[in-house]
Design brief:
The chain is α+β, with helices and mostly antiparallel strands. 26% of the residues lie in helices and 23% in strands. The strands form 5 sheets. It has a 7-stranded mixed beta sheet with strand order 3-4-5-15-7-17-6. A 3-stranded antiparallel beta sheet has the order 14-8-16. α2 packs across α3.
């Protein structure tokens, strides 16, 4: 575990407004141990019963509770909270507190998606996840619909096309089919640990380009102008929807390394030929999709809530249903991705702790 976080991207200094405020990883204090919980797999996912977001917001020791929740999410990848009585506005307030206490830059707030309509009923910072919208051809699902019939093509991390991408995301499902519609998450820590030392060292010297230019076509088809104003960070604005990030990044909350490319938005590894890039990316994508023991699958009940760390997980929905499925999502923004050369893998950190 590193003693200090060194926020650089391959020795290139990061803008001050995009740096994490943490100087070392956060430590878990144990406040959540009194709540009933269970790990869903050895490497990813933890489920809590009786832990209500609304109660955490109102608690006298709210900041300490939220900080422990942040540490738990970042260590376990995704946390599931059953049967939540929480409004979209409370979700927004919780996410603002979570990202702040986890050390996000002062300029980072909640993300505004480029396809968010002006005057949205729930506000710019709350996204409505709806199967009805998907049927009209929305987002990543539409982009993939005419190129593949493999459900695994949907694996992604949220908004990596932004220079300052998401640290945490929260989703509450309030409308769901009788069966189907599960969501899967995979651990970027575990995928890093499955790299050979030689390949890991090689990848740590490279960056990749992420982009979502297909959102321009999406905006034109849906008849909504693309949001080019500030989208939660002063570095996230304009029409480019493209960013360069390290292939291996350090999560400042844990100090652990994670693979940081995804099928949804990563287009090219920089510094190698296109052929080499294609081979390397396909191998990394295969490590995510073909290792079920690095994944957790969650079956939703009404009003269940998931919070995950986008810096070190991927996720994908399961589109195996016909009935309506809908929920509310809030994404916070963290730091610009960086690699601390002194950071460790998850396995090494746990082995020597």
């Amino acid at each position: 575990m590193p003693g200090n976080i060194i926020p650089e991207v391959l020795d290139v200094p990061l803008p001050s407004e995009a740096r994490t405020r943490l100087t070392k990883p956060l430590e878990y204090s144990g406040l959540l141990d009194t709540y009933q919980n269970s790990d869903l797999t050895p490497v990813i996912g933890r489920e809590y019963h009786g832990l209500q977001v609304a109660d955490v917001l109102a608690a006298k020791n709210s900041d300490a509770l939220v900080r422990d929740i942040a540490v738990t999410i970042s260590q376990r990848g995704v946390v599931f909270l059953r049967d939540q009585d929480v409004t979209p506005q409370q979700m927004q307030a919780f996410m603002e507190r979570l990202t702040t206490l986890a050390g996000c830059p002062e300029s980072s707030g909640l993300h505004v998606h480029p396809l968010t309509e002006e005057g949205s009923e729930l506000g710019d910072q709350i996204s409505v996840i709806s199967s009805e919208k998907q049927k009209k051809g929305g987002g990543l699902t539409h982009q993939l619909s005419d190129t593949t019939r493999l459900a695994s093509a949907g694996w992604h991390s949220d908004i990596t096309f932004e220079p300052v991408p998401s640290d945490y995301a929260m989703l509450k499902i309030h409308t769901l089919p009788q069966t189907g519609g599960d969501t899967l998450w995979a651990s970027g820590y575990e995928v890093y640990d499955r790299l050979s030392p030689a390949l890991a060292t090689f990848l740590e010297g490279l960056t990749a380009t992420h982009e979502a230019k297909f959102f321009h076509e999406e905006a034109a088809r849906l008849g909504n102008p693309l949001r080019t104003t500030i989208r939660g960070s002063p570095l996230n604005q304009g029409p480019a929807l493209e960013a360069v990030h390290p292939i291996i990044r350090t999560n400042p909350v844990t100090g652990w390394k994670s693979v940081y490319v995804n099928r949804g938005f990563t287009r090219r590894i920089n510094g190698v030929t296109k052929d080499e890039s294609d081979v390397l990316l396909q191998y990394l994508f295969n490590l995510v999709t073909q290792n079920h023991d690095a994944q957790v699958r969650f079956k939703w009940n009404k009003n269940d809530l998931a919070i995950w760390d986008n810096r070190s997980t991927w996720h994908t929905a399961t589109y195996d249903y016909e009935a309506a499925r809908a929920g509310d999502r809030v994404c916070s923004l963290g730091e610009k991705p960086f690699l601390d050369p002194a950071s460790s893998s998850r396995r090494d950190a746990l082995r020597f702790s």
